[in-house]
Amino acid sequence: MKVLIVGGGGREHAITFAVSKSKRVEKIYAAPGNAGISELAECVDISVMDAERLVAFAKEKEVDFVIVAPDDPLAAGVADAFLDAGIKTFGPRKNAAIIEASKAFSKDLMKKYDIPCAASETFDSAEAALEYLKTSKIPVVLKADGLALGKGVLICNTFEEAEEGIKTIMLDKKFGDAGNKVVIEEFMTGREVSVLCFSDGTTILPMTSAQDHKRAGDGDTGLNTGGMGTFSPSPFYTDEIARFCEEHVYKRTIAAMKAEGREFKGVLFVGLMLTPDGPKVLEFNARFGDPEAQVVIPRLENDIIDVMEACVDGTLDKIDLKFADNAAVCVMLASDGYPQSYEKGFEIRGLDNFKDKDGYYVFHSGTKFKDGKVVTNGGRVIGVTAIGPDLVSARKNAYEATEWIDFDNKYMRHDIGKAIDEK
Questions:
Q1: pLDDT tens for each residue of 93-121
Q2: Which residue from 196, 175, 389, 403 is spatially nearest to 296, judged by alpha carbons?
Q3: pLDDT reported for residue 361
């Protein structure tokens, strides 16, 4: 089987790693890929948004299976382009990817089908939003409606902050057209948990749980990022909570999408808040989370191609999804200054230290080759993932492994998975 993976970040590197282990796969292409992915796949310089060139390439190389991994191409209908060309493709169609692409849509869906979530209202006028704020309980959460690279969510602790947030999103257009609408949501308290689920449009299979750390600084301070690290599984996601979520969130969401004529095939990412009133949905994504994929995928025991193909074929009920009885922690190595301004182009030293090290993984997020060397090429550079028999061991291993890699401007959080110690 020949496989094409669309994307070029840490999530795609983790997916490529899993695909490379499949006995069914003889050749992997990645568009555009990155320096790390190039060790496992042939990288081709095609934009994730260039559906026409991607489909032409897949046809030329007689690709059997395509995996569209990032949010933007899914929201733009790149999976549709492959499917309409008769190429078997993993990833939801555009009309289903809207569950992530529009927060207003997902909130309306949850309200209509009684899926537990925070109380909220949606506005397409800054004036109306500001008026509503005057009656809102503070703190409050503001969400840009569209895709904003995981950064379009503002937690406002004062009325003045909320007022400024509305202006930032809707008037200053900090997140571009994503801010044409804004969702004003009640602030929920509790532990956050991420659960990624495989779905074939009818059957939904939850994967092992994870927890992401979004803020740039230690102690959950600083700006929101695409994710500074993760751990899996979450000790706070109990069997009782899992059963509740399966019935009232996962199955109900997939059934709701089908009822709306938006059959969802792919990975449904469910961000949960474990509130004092029970689990509630924070957000939906229409793909593997990043860096969640970097701790969940290494623990998957199934052949990932078998599972993904079952999602496409509608036979997921035949899959016995299994994860190893261990734990994983991922620490993101970033460029100092991320998520705002940062320098790139620095040589990354120490990557060879991971060769032949069982239970240690280095997933490239923002890297490229320059003069034969691997250099930094983004805000989030490398995800260092380590496995352990339990979370405490995995965390210790991950932080030890971060010392094996070095580059100028290297930055990371030092408290990824610290919540584990409090359990």
A1: 999 999 999 998 999 999 999 999 998 89
A2: 196
A3: 97
